[in-house]
Every structure is written in C-alpha cells, then in structure tokens.
Amino acid sequence: MTKEYRSWTPEQAFLLPPSPTEWLPEGHLAYFILELVRELDVSAIEDAIQSKDGRGVRPYSPRMMTALLLYAYCVGVFSSRKIERATFENVAFRVLAAGEHPHFTTVNAFRLDHRDGLSALFVQVLKLCARAGLRTVGHVSLDGSKLQANASKHKSMTYGRMKDEDKRLAAEIEALLFRADQTDQQEDEQYGEGQRTDELPDEFQRREVRLRRIREAKAALEKEAAQARAAQLRELAAAQRRQAQQALDATERKRAATRASKSQQQADELSQRHDDGDGDGGGATTELSTHRVPTTPKGEPTDKAQRNFTDPDSRLMVRNGVFVQGYNAQAAVSESQVIVAHAVTNQPPDQEHLVPMLERVREHCGRLPEQLSADAGYLSERNIRLRRSQRRGCLHRGAPQRRRRLRAGTATDEPGARRPLADAPKGDFRGWPGDLRPAQGDRRAGVWPNQRSPRL
To answer: Which has more confidence, 48 or 227?
Structure first.
C-alpha cells in the first residue's frame, strides 16, 4: 500500500495572519529579550531622539532597535549589515523587528549616537538580576583575557627602527629624485623642452607614501611619550609635595618643595609643547590604567617604544606564551554567572586593574563583594593591603614559583624588585576553601582566550 505524504503547499496563503508569538518555540531567547526590553528604562535614548529636529522620516522605536542590538550581540552578530539582512532572513530577528527592516546605516548610527545610553542599560540589567534573586556581590571572580585586535603584530615598528627607516627612505627618495632629474635632462635633449613627461615611477611613490606614514607614526609616538612623561612628572610632583608636608626638618621640606616645583614645571612645559594637558587616561577611580609609552627623562620615546600602523591603540601582549597584538579585557563575574563589571584596556599587566574593577563592582552593585577570587596576575603588596583594609577575603591561586615567592615574602609589585612583602599572609594558599583555578572568571562569563574581540 502506498503511503500518502503530508500536504506541502508553500504558495498557500494563510486565511488568518499568524501571530509572531507562535513563530518560535516557547522559551526562545528572542521572547526573553522582548520581555527584558519592556522593563528597561530607555528614557535617555528617547530624550536624545526627541531633542532633534522633528521634521523628516519618523524614527524607529528605540526599544525595537535596542532589542535588535541586544539579541544580535547575544548570538554573535556584530555587523550592522548582517543585522539588516537578518531582519529579512532570520525568524527571531523578524519577530524582534516586528516586520520592520532598518537600513544597516541606521543600525550603526543608533549604536554610535546612543553609546552612553546603551551602556547605562548594563546597570539596569544587574538590578533586574538582583530582583530575580541572583546573587551579584557575594563571591566575585575577576580575570583578564588578551583579545586579538583587528591588526597584525607585524605591522608594528619601534621608535628606533622608525628613525633608521626615516633616514634610509629619505636617502633612497633623494637618489630616485636625482635619477629622475638626470632622466628628464636626457629626455629634454632627445624630445625637446616643454614636451609632456611620464609620471613619477611607482617605486618612488611607494617609498614616499611609506616615509609619510612612518613620520606620522613617529610624530604620534613622540606626542604620546611627552604625555606619558608629563603624567609621570605630575605624579612625582604630588609625591614630593606630600613629602614636603610630612618632613620634620625645615631644610628637607624646602628641598622637597623645590623638587616638586621643578617637576611640575617640566610637566607643564611638555604639555604646552604638544598642546595636551593630560595624557594619562586614568583620571577617574573606575577607569583602568592605559599603556604609557616608555620615555627618556626628556620626554622622548625610547628606541624600544612601539606603535602599530593599523591599530595604534592596541599593544603587543603575551597570550598562552605567544605574542599577539590586542587588548586586555577584564571581567568580574558573580557566582550566579552574572557579569557585574567589565572593561577593556591596552595595559597588559593585571595588577593595576584590581582596584578600578572593584570600584566598578561597587558602582554597579552598590557595595563591594564579600569574597574575591583572582589569579596570581593580580597579586601585589598594594592589592593585598587594600583587601585587608576593606576587611574582605581574597582567594587566589597562581604559578608555583609565585606561591614560593609569596611564602618567602619576596613577591612584589615590580617584577625586578626584591622588597619584602611585609603585609602579605605567609603560607600555602592551596588549602584555602573555595580556591578557584586561574581564568575561572573567563569560564563563568563564557569568554575564552582565543576568542577575537567583536568589532563594535
């Protein structure tokens, strides 16, 4: 007996329009995003839209645009063009957009124009998590991951090599110009003066473009070095002023005050020379420190100072024993697998980022975590004193040689220093309850070291 197939009529029109709530299975992420966006306060985005000229095409709903971006980033779609295409081809995106198809330039402009408003939604999500019963500041794990930038490490050049290439290319260009002059004279004698000559050779144009790019990178590196040196001198002047106030001897107070005045004067001169008042980039407590170009006492870059031509903000970092051109992404994750703080910086070491990341947790959640887990990359004398002053626990597990140095009392903030770690607890940390393995924060957040950074 022949079996009959189920009816299949793709051209058949529906008698009644189907409900979008029936297009996806119950419990789908798109429905959760819809419910979440209804609870979020998007008044900051709405106020920015209403402040513009009311004439022209009506804008899309800010909640719809926010839902599209949130869902796209959750499923790993970061391209505005792919988001626009998904509103035609992907059922979940069609449900969220409610039949609308915003152009990719509109999606990109919404993200750029309302970056601060979208960032503020992070705190609202944490409050919703707390209202739902998820613990956000009980036991927090902190770790950093080196993410590959959209640039190659082979496109970086040191300041010393820039100077050498500048001289070499200038000499080659001069030689090419001399050869071109000789060729022009020979052609004038052969064809007569005033006749049209050929364009400059491609070889000359390539060298000229390369020389211009190197000189631009060299000038930018010199400016960054001056800013970094000015910031160091300001910090030195502040420390010398404190020393002058605390000194008991009048002569020592006068010397410290003089040194502070000279340091401040040098910092002001460097700032005026490069027309920039502050190049530190870490003013607020919650801001992570950024990379400072190594400089000489005169504010010039050292020969080993590097700059990448493709992405000047990225830095050379070590990830799993391999050098990568990238960024250091920090994430603090609660025991309920909720990201309570995050940040991205171009400063590779993790030691400097513990304090600002804890301040971000306090800013987002209202208080500091009861316990903090971090690996040995965050271990320093200053960080241990901080956690003790806050009367909070700090659990960590690091490399064996680091733990041996800790037990011996020689682990310090500076890699090359050998000062005693006076306030560090002595003993083996392996027996501490709740001790977490390194990079536990990465695993909880679902971020892995080999994951490339999204292009936002």
So the answer is: 48
pLDDT digits (tens, 9 = 90+) for 391-430: 665 555 555 555 555 555 554 544 434 444 444 444 433 3
pLDDT in tens, 49-62: 888 888 888 899 99
Question: How far apart (Å, rounded) are the C-alpha atoms in residues 36 and 64?
Answer: 12
Taking a C-beta distance cutoff of 8 angstroms, is the pair 346, 154 a contact? no
Judge contact between 23 and 91, C-beta under 8 A: yes
Residue 141 or 154, more confident: 141
% of the chain at pLDDT higher than 70: 78
Q: Within a 13 Å sphere around the CA of 167, how many CA atoms are in the beta-carbon half?
A: 5
Q: What is the pLDDT of residue 31?
A: 92
Q: Count the residues in the chain.
A: 456
Distance CA 358, CA 376 (A): 17
Structure tokens given for 269: 């001169």
Q: What is the mean pLDDT of residues 84-109?
A: 93
Phi and psi at residue 328, in whole multiples of 5°? Answer: -105, 110
